[in-house]
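step: validate -> pass
step: tokenize input -> pass
step: predict -> running
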Amino acid sequence: MIIAAADGSAIGNPGPTGWAWYVDEEHWAAGAFPTGTNNIGELTAVAELLEATAHVGQALHIVADSRYVIDSVTSWMPGWKRRGWKKADGKPVKNVDLMRRIDALMQGREVTFEWVRGHAGHPLNEKVDALAQAQARAVADCATRRGPGWPGQVACDIGDDTLF
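step: predict -> pass
step: emit ->
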């Protein structure tokens, strides 16, 4: 069984957003986007972890400090799917693209979730929290240091997004 942690972080919420997943020093990933929410970061981390481990063929146990993510996937998602990705009140599910991606990536896999209190000393959660926060801070720092640049010069490259 793979035991991994997943986390997201947003500065300003919405604001610069980081995500990360972590198994050990040889198996982890992190990324960021210029703007998003904590929930988007958390969901992205889970989706990226599921995608990265899809080929491994082992059960996956995800440690997370987000009740929103865990409840979404383990409790609410079946009802949303039955109602055409609508909540019980008939309103559309938020972050539906990420929810659908996670749902597809979980098909045919043994995936379990464990909630842990954030910032309470859980080693995997602390590591992944630091990685996600570092990504969000890097985006925020890049955005604040952009300056006028020079025509054609890339001031900051954030994954798929380039800030000039």
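step: describe -> The mean pLDDT is 89.
step: cleanup -> pass
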